[in-house]
Design brief:
With 178 residues, the chain is mainly β. It has two helices and eleven strands. The relative contact order is 0.22.
């Protein structure tokens, strides 16, 4: 396995309820689509490639979520709690794309460990909003690869194990009273 990234910086949302650590040469910037009602940030690596997106949006205002098929739980996050106070999980799974013959994606996210939140990668904060901390990495052509195998290979890759998983494991979230 490659060298695990050193997580030397911390991003915290303005309300102080969500944080994660990231490498010094990565950046966190507000997305151009970010608003007061739906704040969102991009987490980019040293080359400028987006590794994660963090967003907070009102419950029920999620259009076209990237929902993987048969996601795998990689671990739980004792310092990231859902609205009921249950630890969240890290999930990874294959997403086929929007049509046949396109690249599939390996989707990774902080998600419900209990099934309380039914959308992969969206977690209720208990105040009428949902949080998403997720990313995708392109895989092979969806009708030419075994997508489950493709995702298993991704989960064993240096990119995931040494660069993405440490950031996911650093994620913290406190429930917000509604």
């Amino acid at each position: 396995m490659g060298t695990t990234v050193a997580l030397t910086r911390t991003f915290t949302t303005p309300d102080g309820t969500i944080s994660f650590d990231y490498p010094d040469d990565w950046t966190v910037t507000a997305l151009s689509t970010s608003t007061a009602e739906i704040p969102a940030w991009s987490v980019n690596d040293e080359k400028g490639a987006r590794m994660f997106t963090l967003s907070i949006r009102p419950d029920g205002q999620i259009a076209s979520p990237v929902t993987p098929q048969n996601p795998t739980t990689v671990g739980t996050l004792p310092d990231a709690l859902d609205a009921q106070g249950h630890p969240l999980a890290i999930g990874v799974g294959p997403f086929p794309g929007q049509s046949v013959g396109v690249n599939m994606a390996n989707v990774y996210a902080v998600t419900s460990a209990t099934g309380a939140d039914r959308l992969f990668g969206y977690v209720s904060r208990g105040d009428g909003t949902m949080v998403s901390f997720e990313g995708t990495q392109e895989g092979g052509i969806n009708d030419q690869v075994d997508m489950a195998d493709e995702t298993q290979k991704f989960m064993q890759s240096d990119l995931f194990r040494a660069r993405l998983l440490p950031v996911l494991e650093s994620f913290t979230m406190k429930p917000v009273a509604g």
